[in-house]
Design a protein that fits this description.
Blueprint lengths: L3 E12 L2 E12 L3 E5 L6 H8 L7 E8 L2 E4 L5 H6 L2 E3 L12 H14 L2 H6 L8 H14 L15 H13 L5 E5 L7 H17 L3 E5 L3 H7 L2 E6 L2 E6 L1 H6 L1 H6 L6
Parallel strand pairs: 3-8, 3-9, 6-7, 7-8
Antiparallel strand pairs: 1-2, 1-4, 4-5, 9-10
Helix pairs in contact: 3-5, 3-6, 7-8
The structure holds adenosine-5'-triphosphate.
Length: about 260
């Protein structure tokens, strides 16, 4: 039985008269790779926004399981949630385009360094003692992601697929336990998508973290994840392994557009 990392219980989000997320309960366990799928407007990004404090929940409980016990994330701001070990990428690329690749990663580290992230999370008072330590750590991350050759290039010079990879590196620079990726393969060609799929699997394995992935490309999701949640009209339609989901009559009808 795997240990829970984050649970969301009966989450509701209303925007005026529209219920974007309707009574959704999910759990993400330690070291899991999970997919979140559903048609346009199903509430996937809204759910990410709720779990990362970008948007407050209308009702429901979000809990993070830590070494110090269970922590409620309700009402926490994005920076506090990042400090608690949760990181994310967004659908649209959010790099500092004029800065170099290396500086983009260093800044991701520095933000949290200033906020005392590493001191609070790792209980090693000086995780990165000096600028030089931080640079070394950033260079190591870039090497893992095969970005050393472009470390001194401004981010805007990189091809689109590499910019998306850099976004993932930046999200990892905060040493998260849980990483949310919002359509990481959006806009990529099939070859870049295949590379990214391998990379996501490798990150999850090598960094011993939990990754939750929103994806439209069903083949990408089915090949990579261990478990899936399917949302439709804000509600949870199904949960299961890729083969269970592929055979689920409600999913076939609603999401794949076939006959049940
Ligand atoms: N800030 C907001 N104000 C009002 N309505 C919103 C807001 N954010 C999202 N919505 C609505 O909530 C619903 C769910 O949107 P959401 O972006 O979460 O869906 P999604 O599953 O991520 O879709 P896509 O796959 O197209 O990104 C949509 O009807 C959307 O218009």
């Amino acid at each position: 039985m795997s240990s829970p990392l984050l649970t969301a219980q009966q989450i509701v989000k209303s925007f005026g008269g529209l219920t974007a997320v309707a009574n959704v309960s999910v759990h993400f366990d330690q070291n899991e790779l999970i997919g979140l799928i559903g048609p346009n407007g199903a509430g996937k990004t809204t759910l990410f926004n709720l779990l990362t404090g970008v948007t407050p929940v209308t009702s429901g409980a979000i809990s993070l399981y830590t070494d110090q016990g269970v922590q409620s994330l309700n009402g926490k701001k994005p920076a506090e949630i990042a400090q608690a070990g949760i990181s994310r990428t967004f659908q649209n690329i959010r790099l500092f385009k004029e800065l170099t690749v290396l500086d983009n990663v260093r800044i991701a580290m520095t933000n949290h360094y200033r906020e005392g992230f590493f001191t609070s999370i790792f209980r090693t008072p000086k995780f990165y003692r000096t600028e030089a330590d931080m640079t070394t750590a950033a260079q190591k991350l870039l090497a893992i992601f095969d970005l050393t050759g472009v470390a001194d290039q401004p981010a805007k010079n990189l091809p689109y697929g590499i910019q998306r990879r850099l976004e993932i590196v930046r999200a990892l620079a905060t040493k998260p336990k849980l990483l949310f990726l919002d359509e990481p393969a959006a806009g990529m060609n099939p070859e870049e998508t295949a590379d990214l799929t391998r990379l996501i699997r490798q990150i999850q394995h090598d960094f011993h973290i939990t990754i939750v992935l929103i994806e439209h490309d069903m083949s990408l999701v089915m090949n990579v994840v261990e478990r899936l949640y399917v949302l439709e009209h804000g509600a949870l339609l199904a949960e299961g392994t890729p083969s269970e989901i592929q055979q689920n009559p409600a999913v076939i009808k609603a999401y794949l557009g076939g006959e049940a």
